[in-house]
Structure formats: structure tokens, C-alpha cells
Amino acid sequence: MTVSVATLGFPRIGLRRELKFALESYWAGKSSLAELQTAAAGLRALHWTRQKALGADILPSNDFSLYDHVLDTSALIGAVPTRYDWTGETVDTDTYFAMARGTQGAASSAGCGHMHDTTAQEMTKWFDTNYHFLVPELSAGQTFRIASTKIFDEFEEAKALGYMTRPVLLGPVSYLMLAKAKAVEPFALLPQLLEVYAEILARLAKLGAEWVQIDEPCLVLDLSETQRTAFARAYSALATRGPKLMLTTYFGGLDDNFDLVTDLPVHGLHLDLVRAPDQLELALEKLQPHVLLSLGVIDGRNIWRANLPDLYWRLKEIAAKRDLVLAPSCSLLHVPVDLALETSLDPEIAQWLSFAVQKIEELAALARALNEGEDASFAAFSASRIAAVARQTSPKIHDPAVAARLAALDDTAIHRPSPFATRRAAQQERLALPAYPTTTIGSFPQTPEVRKARAAFIKGEIDAAAYDQYLRVETRAAVKWQEEIGLDVLVHGEFERNDMVQYFGEQLSGFAFTRAGWVQSYGSRCVRPPILYGDVSRPKAMTVDWWRFAQDQTELPVKGMLTGPVTILNWSFVRDDQPREASCRQIALAIRDEVQDLEAAGAAIIQIDEAALREGLPLRRSAWQYYLDWAVECFRITASGVRDDTQIHTHMCYSEFNDIIRAIGAMDADVISIETARSQMELLDAFASYAYPNEVGPGVYDIHSPRIPATSEMTDLLTLAGKHLLPPQIWVNPDCGLKTRKWDEVRPALTAMVAAARTMRIRGAYDGQ
Ligand code: GLN
Ligand code: ZN
Description:
Elements: E1 3-5, H1 18-27, H2 33-54, E2 59-61, H3 69-76, H4 93-101, H5 105-108, E3 123-125, E4 132-134, E5 137-139, H6 150-160, E6 165-170, H7 172-178, E7 180-182, H8 190-207, E8 211-215, H9 225-238, E9 244-248, H10 258-262, E10 268-272, H11 279-286, E11 292-298, H12 308-321, E12 324-328, H13 347-350, H14 356-372, H15 378-393, H16 400-408, H17 420-431, H18 448-459, H19 464-485, H20 502-505, E13 509-512, E14 519-522, E15 525-527, E16 531-537, H21 544-551, E17 560-563, H22 565-570, H23 580-601, E18 605-609, H24 624-639, E19 647-652, H25 661-667, E20 671-674, H26 684-690, E21 695-698, H27 711-724, H28 743-768
Parallel strand pairs: 1-12, 2-6, 5-7, 6-8, 8-9, 9-10, 10-11, 11-12, 17-18, 18-19, 19-20, 20-21
Antiparallel strand pairs: 3-4, 13-16, 14-15
Bound molecules: glutamine (GLN) and zinc ion.
């Protein structure tokens, strides 16, 4: 029996983000399409060579993308919305990037007479990752046909280089489930879509593809009867002709969809055994012997090194009985490329890590041992075992003081001393704010100058004192300006922060940072998530000095500004040696300390942002309540250690609260600011029907757009908000932080916002008389 190694997909951005720079240079008009294509082909060739050299037997093709693989699928089947005016035989690069990024009249219309703006397709998170895909749009009268040759071209490109690849194709049912359908039932389109998929598969077979990796990650979700039927119909149509299909599932277990899947006539099945290890037994029991099993045994979503000897013992007997493919749990798209670039990481911590390159080496070592005996991977196994033991016992990870503090937490730690009504009275007395109080969400423009100063400081071109001085000038000016335009609750502006999670991670113990650990977020945008490796504590106050400096400039209240524990957790690579909630509670304790220090320094208002609370929801509904319970508890740990007259704010940038409104209520923040400007206050329905008692700042200024809203638009929105909330509950603020905006936009917009609040106050006074 043989064991082979597959990768399911390699990070496309490049070791040094070469794709990012090639794309941005092309978009800026600094390089030609031919140059972009050369760069892309170079990366693909390199990635195949590299994966092969590292020991992968089954190489993916079509895992590369100039922007996004779901967008590639839309192009492949010709699902191009009419607003892009596309008429060609195949989807050209301009149309492709227009779908990804939209077009702005002047920039895109070089050569053709008409000028108009076209909006991009909507973007949303790919399952529970931080990768964003472009949501397919389907409409009435939708037709499909092969409209891109990318998947065929890349297969042939690899073949010409001597590599027989296994093309990756997003499956038809997941495609329809991820799509947004207007005036059409998406599954009504299935028969038509299957015809095109059959054609694609036939063409791949003709080119010589023996296998195709067909991704159906939606098989790990809760499925309706219609969706289940669609899977059955799709695979009985597709699996009998053309190349063999490796049905690939990831990001969770099949659970109640297991029988559905074992009945599909596919030739291979990939299971995520990192998120759902128990599936292995079930698969061995239920799967026909001729179905090739692909086992996702190495974590494709996290950066930890595996324990190879453990895996070996788990797989040894199985490998003696049947052919196996070993693979990461999912595509390696979600981890950084190569640990070798991390020359400044603490070597002890680096020893515990594994990025895409190392993960393939781990798979290869495991396969070698299973094929040839344990001794064949002696060196790799010893190193793996040593690292695993070191990680289990390292004092860098285990801090008994943190464990003791958590164990000592009792119920009082998650309850404010008094209920909201009492707190509200105490806060009103202390703060004496007017009706419709105005504030902002925290950040002010991160101008090129601010970023330049930070870069110069990091490079050592200016010293800490000079950088600090620069930040003080900016902060002082921002505070003075807020005072001038008449805002009621001020912020310091967050000029000193690179990123709302990184800034805190860098000051907490238990976090490490990479130099080049980039992961694609969307298109050319990458993030470098912090690595949470050990017990978390806060050696010293993190934000108090900047808060105090800002507060010293003014008599008006300045908000203390913190990132909440759930958001820090959800935007980091986190420990796999304890449950997520355990790590989150530790972060919560550290942030609680900061809240208390801010209070002691005199802050009357403290905001704890939970921008990523909703996006942490598990994929299965049955797991939601458990998650929400601990997420809320963690927030309450941070927020509950303060006096009644200290006002706790939170901020969330979503427009979807129906599912989580009870959790929002349970957080019991005195004030919550949310994103509403674009949804015409509709999301306040959830707050109204729940009879949310605390105060709410529904965003009245859409900060995602450079547009400057008029005062009347904002009073209209506030009037609408008054239909869902009581006027005394309402705060006036933008949708989110202003760091991505320019001062020229922010100045008039906030001035108009203050005017809107004043108008509302006058109207309120008339109404009351
Ligand atoms: N305080 C942060 C800011 O204003 C909040 C950002 C966010 O919610 N994404 O930038
Ligand atoms: Zn926000």
C-alpha cells in the first residue's frame, strides 16, 4: 500500500509578497499586463518546483489566483453581472479586476469614450478564516458557459514544466451556496451549472488530468434538504465521467452530512482531521474500500509544528491496509510561506512552528516513514518529538501566576456592582453630557506622514524621543480640533498604533510577531497575525500614558481606547494546546487590568472594541451558544472591574445583529457603537424587538467611503434611529474609526455630524414643550 503527499493549495502571494507588488504596480499603471503575467507565471513555476522538492507527490494547479479563487470560478463559468458590460468570448483581465475592485470612471476608461463608476462585487469572509472572497452574483436569466481558460492553461503550463498536476476546482454546490442570488432560486440553476462543470471536467480529462480536486467546503455546514439533494444530484452527474474526483472537505467535520457524502460516487474523499479527528474511524468504517482517502492531518489553519511520531502511530495500521493520501487539513493559503525568513524570532519559539514549506516537509517525512518504516524519517521524527516535548514543558508557555488568577475568578468578576439604571444615573451625574452626545470611534487619519514617522522609527532613522514628540504634536492637534468643532466625548486619535490587535499583542507577554509571516486577506492585501504561544499577562500599563497626555489637553472627557479579548483572539494564530476560550480568558484578564489602570488614572469613559466578535461564530449553529457564552463572559471580565460612574463603551463594525442580539445584551456595555449608515438604520430592528435597554451609537457617517455626508442626511438617520430607540438612548458617531480617511474628508464630515446632533437637540426641546 502506498502513502502519497498532497498539498491542496500553496500560498499564492509569494515568499516576499511578490504577487502583491506585481499587482499593485500593474493597477497603478507602472507595469504592463505582460509583466504581471510573467511575474504570476514565475510564482506558479516556483511553487510547483518548491512543493515537489519538499516532497509533495500530488501538486495542485489552479490554486494560484490573481485575486481570488471564487472570482476565478465566476470567470470560469461566465457568471459576470451585467453591470460590467462584458461581451467577450472569455473574461478579460480588465473585467476580472473590475469585478474584484470596481472601476472609477476616469481611471478605467482609457481609450473608450464613456466614463462611469462600477461597483465591485461584494466581499465576505471565506468560512471562518480571515481570507475574503468575492461573492458570486446570480440573477434571473442567468446562463453559464466556459468563459475562462485559466484552469486549462495552468494545467498545461505545469505539464510543460514536467509536472502532472491535480487541478483545484471549487465545487458547484458550494459555489451556489456562497452566491448571492437576485430574483432567482440558486438551485434552479444547478442543472445548467452541472452541464458546464461536466464540460470543464471533460476538457481537463482530455488534457491528461487523471484527478481533479473538487472543493466542497460547504459539506461541513448545516445543510437544508435542498442543499443535500443538490450534492447528490451534482456528484451523480459529475463523478461518472471525466477525471477522478477527490471530493475535498475542510474547516470542520461532516457530522450529520457523513452518510450523504459516503453515498456520493466519487473516487476520493479528503477529510479535515485537525478540526474533526473522530471522522477517521467513521470513514474507515463507512467508506467503500476503492475510495481513496485523503487525510488532512497537518493543521492548514495554524502555524504549529505537528507531533510526527504521534501521527505515525495513529496511521501505521491504516496505511498497511489501504492507500492513503496525506495532506494539510485545508489549502496552505491560510498560513505564511516559510519559517526560514523568521531570523529574529526567539529560536525556542521558532522551534515550535511550521509554515507552509515546513508543513509539506512534515507530510513528506510522515509519508516516508509509513512507506519505508519509521527509521526512514529518524531525524525528522526526533526533531519533531523534541520540539513537542519542549513546547509542552517550556516556562515560556506556562505561567503559574496566570493560572492561579484565573482559578480565583469568581462570579463577582463578571458583574458590574450595579445594574445599568443605577450606573446610568451615576454616569450622568459625573459626565453631564447633552442629549445626543457626539463622539468618534477612536482613530483619526493615519496620514502618510504618520506612517512615514513610524517607518523611520522602526528603521532607526529617528529615535524614540523624536517619534514620541511627533506623536504628541499629532495627538495634541487632534484633541484641540475635536474641542473646537464641539464634540462631546473626545479620543486621542490612536496615532501611535500600527494595528488595533498588534499594538496590544506587542505589549502583552505570550505573543510573538513574525517579520514576514504574511497571509493573504484579500486581493493584494495581506495581514501578519500575531502568534499567541503562551499564557498571557500584562507586564505594565499599555495605553495609560497616551490617554493621560490627551486628557491633560482638555477639560472634556477623553475615552480610554482598548481592543477587546475576543477580537485579539480571533485575529491571531492561537494556541492549540488549550481551548480557545482558555486563551481568551487570559487576554480578558490582561485587558481588565488595563481598564482598571485607566480608571485609576481618571478616565471616566473606556471603550473596549470587539470588532471581530461576530465573525468568530462557529460554522455550525449548534456550536454558537457555547461560543457566545464564553465570548460574552470574556468581555464581562474586562469590563466589570470598574465603578458605577465609569462608563464602558464597546464598538462593533457589523450590520447584522439579529443572530447575536441576546449576546450583545448580555455584554451589558453602557454604550455600544455600531455600523448602520449604509443600512438605513434597519439593523436597529434587532435592538428594538429585543428592547435593548442600554445606550446605542448607530453610525451616521459611512467611513468606508470618501463621501462627505450632509447634516440633513445625518439628522434623517437619527430621526429614523428614533423610531427604534428612545432618544435618550441615542449617541451620535461615525460607523467606525477614521484611520483610513483623509483629514480633508474627516473635518467637514465631523463638523456636519456635530451640527446634526445640535439640530436633534433643538428639535427634541421643541417636541418636549
Ligand atoms: N478604535 C478602533 C478605531 O477607531 C476601532 C476599529 C475597528 O473597530 N475596526 O480604529
Ligand atoms: Zn469598527
